[in-house]
Amino acid sequence: MKSLWPQPGDHLLVTLRIDRENHMYGRLASESVVENMFTPVHDDNLKNEVIEAKPYRVLRIGSFLLSESG
């Protein structure tokens, strides 16, 4: 799965945490965090269209994307 890891210059959607020793670290944003930030759009006009989007979760079986167009 290392081939799916972010590359230098990539942007990640993360949540930040601080542990007991005051170390800050980030975790990839969970599905519930993403759901609270964005509104899904169901637009049949976007089917089979080329859009610009950013992946926020990449899996072997596919990717979850965010776009400004829906």
Description:
The protein is built from 1 helix and 4 strands, in the order E-E-H-E-E. It has 70 residues and is mainly beta. It has a single domain (2-66), classed as Beta Barrel (OB fold (Dihydrolipoamide Acetyltransferase, E2P)). A two-stranded antiparallel ribbon has the order 1-2. A two-stranded antiparallel ribbon has the order 3-4. Strand 1 (14-18) and strand 2 (24-28) form a beta hairpin. The two termini are 28 Å apart. The mean pLDDT is 86.
CATH architecture classification name: Beta Barrel
In DSSP terms (H or I, runs of 4 or more residues), the helix count works out at: 1
Number of strands: 4
Q: Which runs of at least 5 residues are low in confidence (pLDDT < 50)?
A: none
Remind me, CATH topology? OB fold (Dihydrolipoamide Acetyltransferase, E2P)
Rounded radius of gyration (Å): 15 Å
Distance between the amino and carboxyl termini: 28 Å
Order of helices and strands: EEHEE
Structural class: mainly beta
Protein name: Conserved virulence factor B
Family: Belongs to the CvfB family.
Domain Conserved virulence factor B second S1: 1-26
Organism: Staphylococcus aureus
Brief digest:
Belongs to the CvfB family. The chain has 70 residues and is mainly beta. It has one helix at residues 31-37, and strands spanning 14-18, 24-28, 54-59, 62-66.
Topology (SSEs and partners):
Elements: E1 14-18, E2 24-28, H1 31-37, E3 54-59, E4 62-66
Antiparallel strand pairs: 1-2, 3-4
